Amino acid sequence: MLVVDSRDEVGPDVRTWRGYGIIRVDEPTSLDLARHAAASVATALVEAGDRVGLEDLARRRRPLPPSAGRRHLRRLVHGLALAHPKDPASAHRVRPPQLPADAIVYLFTTLLDDDPLHLVRTWRTAGHPVVVIDTLPDVHPVIESHLAIAWQIGRLEREDRIAALDVEGIPVVRWAGSQRDQAAVRFEALAHAARRHVPGRTP
User: Fold this and answer.
1) Burial class (CB in 10 A: 0-12, 13-18, 19+), 51
2) pTM
3) Most buried residue, 3, 129, 137, 190, by most Cβ within 10 Å?
């Protein structure tokens, strides 16, 4: 199951976060990276013969149930194209989507709040292997002092979340900057290991 955290969309310029300023069209946002990463993972899984489904945390009424084949892959890509942030005024704590019993979960998120950790821990308790894909763009240097302080606090909190996932044995794959080139190799190894440990699956 691909789970896209599209509750917000941020670019590399902190000044444009939370709806302020204009995001440059030539700089990928977190949601651009999430769409690309999820499409890449979906393609690899479908080509391997796996059934793949899609959940969008901001569009919970329209999940795509797991299926296989090239036609379904096109539906997945279309669903990813429709992903967009929800109205901040209606934001609330997300509840873990209900997933098939044998699902491997790929969560695409910026890790800018604690909700992804709650989701991951709930899924792990239910026996689901989870891979977290970090979709925060490489952030530009911040000049304004008040924004620099805010980002420093946010960055440290984000690093604490990533460290907590690491301690709990949850792999986090970075999908931005130079680390994106290494993501495919890590995905292949993680997917192969997850299949071996899910009951009823064969490598």
Assistant:
1) middle
2) 0.86
3) 3
